[in-house]
Amino acid sequence: MLVVMPTYNERANLEPVVAGILAHPFTRVLIVDDGSPDGTGALADALAVRHSGRVKAMHRTGPRGLGRSYIDGLRHAITSGADTICQMDADLSHDPSALPELAAALQHYDLVIGSRYLNGAISVVNWPLHRIMLSAFANRYIRAVTGLSPRDCTSAYRAWRCSLLAQLPLQHARTSGYAFLPEMLVEAVRLGGRVGEVPILFVERRAGASKLSLHVLLESLLVPWLVVLRGGRVRRADRPRRG
Ligand SMILES: Nc1nc2c(ncn2[C@@H]2O[C@H](COP(=O)(O)OP(=O)(O)OP(=O)(O)O)[C@@H](O)[C@H]2O)c(=O)[nH]1
Ligand SMILES: [Mg+2]
């Protein structure tokens, strides 16, 4: 499994998260850095030398962004020959110890979401109330506008069968922030992908700073409508099953 991980100023988190991923013998890592001013890119290069063959660093130039970095990293991953691809954040909010469960669920699904909101629970640690409410609202909003049914449409912790991911029109994704996350889900369901969810515990970052901005939030409100205008709502028959 190739793990794609975008980084921007994650110097304090990169080493432990990479160690956690590499503890699973079935993994490789692609770090997608956006010229982090704190030197995360140089650390990524050092890790690539130390773990030659298992860690690779990609250095982006041009406009930076979480969405752009995930898309570039995933497109590269598709060409790498991996059968399965995982996407995850580098700030330790996504616990690498969940990787075996995500990988195992790919035996039954084409896309598995590491979900914070299964079975009526909210599995989030150290989030202030306004962050929980924002995330809950975002998920309701996205489900209402697009017709999607997963409980966590905005989780970036996802495992893919490459056969499904390679069919997605990733080259058309234009969003800079999080909005590509529900957009990719809609495309996956339209392609007939089987979508499952496994529970994860999301822990708010302890080191480094969040990059959530007003621009990214506004984009997230608009994009679900653009996705629906382009291809319609997800039809009931297309809807994913829950794992
Ligand atoms: N390459 C790249 N990575 C980014 C960019 N912005 C954020 N990231 C990375 O994307 C992941 C998620 O970003 P966060 O800032 O943690 O966003 P978040 O998880 O919603 O916010 P918090 O809850 O505060 O952690 C982290 O690994 C970041 O380093 C960017 O512009 N470029
Ligand atoms: Mg985070």
Using brief descriptors, characterize the structure shown.
two-stranded parallel ribbon, binds magnesium ion, 7-stranded mixed sheet, binds guanosine-5'-triphosphate, Spore Coat Polysaccharide Biosynthesis Protein SpsA, Chain A, 243 residues, alpha/beta, 16% strand
Write the topology of this structure:
Layout: E1 2-7, H1 11-22, E2 28-33, H2 40-50, E3 55-59, H3 66-78, E4 84-87, H4 99-105, E5 111-115, E6 124-125, H5 129-146, E7 158-161, H6 162-165, H7 180-190, E8 195-199, E9 202-203, H8 214-231
Parallel strand pairs: 1-2, 1-4, 2-3, 5-8, 6-9
Antiparallel strand pairs: 4-7, 5-7
The protein binds guanosine-5'-triphosphate and magnesium ion.
The site of guanosine-5'-triphosphate has 20 residues, from β1, β2 and α3.
Short characterization:
By secondary structure, the chain is an alpha/beta fold.
